[in-house]
Amino acid sequence: MAVTTANLVQGPAELYAGVFGATEPGEATVNSTPAASAWSDLGGTDGGARLNVALTYSVLTVDQLVEAAGRRLTNRDCNIATSLAEPTLENVDRMLNGGTSASGSGWKSWAPASESSATQPNYWAVLLHGWAPAGNRRMVIGRKVLNIANMESAYTKDGKTLVPVDLATHYVSQSVPSFRVIDGTD
Q1: Which CATH architecture has domain 9-100+121-183?
Q2: Alpha carbons 13 and 137: distance in angstroms, whole number
Q3: How far apart are CA 77 and CA 178, in angstroms?
Q4: pTM as predicted
Q5: How many CB atoms lie within 10 A of CB 67?
Q6: Which residue has the higher pLDDT, 121 or 175?
Q7: From the centroid of its chain, how far is CA 150?
Q8: How far apart are CA 132 and CA 139, in angstroms?
């Protein structure tokens, strides 16, 4: 089997946050930085960024066959995971899916929202801007996400304080999928 070395991909990705329903970059702009008017750079990451897509299929069986007759997709779970290396209050707000921010001369603060469990969560959008084959760029757009990772901010003598991120995508509509992948081409 021949290997096409230009198809090998290596390198970091940048992570951007936008509001749910944010204007998505057009396909032709995949090799450009997303517009700052719609997407906020979440800063440095540690340990890489991962796109995880888990598919669950139900097995179809019949009495007359010993093999599975087929399978049907019953669940698709898509997550974008990383650790943010910049534990700003703005990143904490996003990763805890919203809260209340305040600021004054020489200070700023954040507090979690006090909502009932039946309250609609604060969905947002995420854009992972990484590398594609042949040195082009790839954009993965999560259109409706929530962070489902537990937050732990460790302050240690010999390590960075990181904000763990596990951004789960959610159903948008029949005509708009929960995520989209765009590759630049030569």
Answers
A1: Roll (2.30)
A2: 9
A3: 10
A4: 0.90
A5: 8
A6: 175
A7: 15
A8: 9
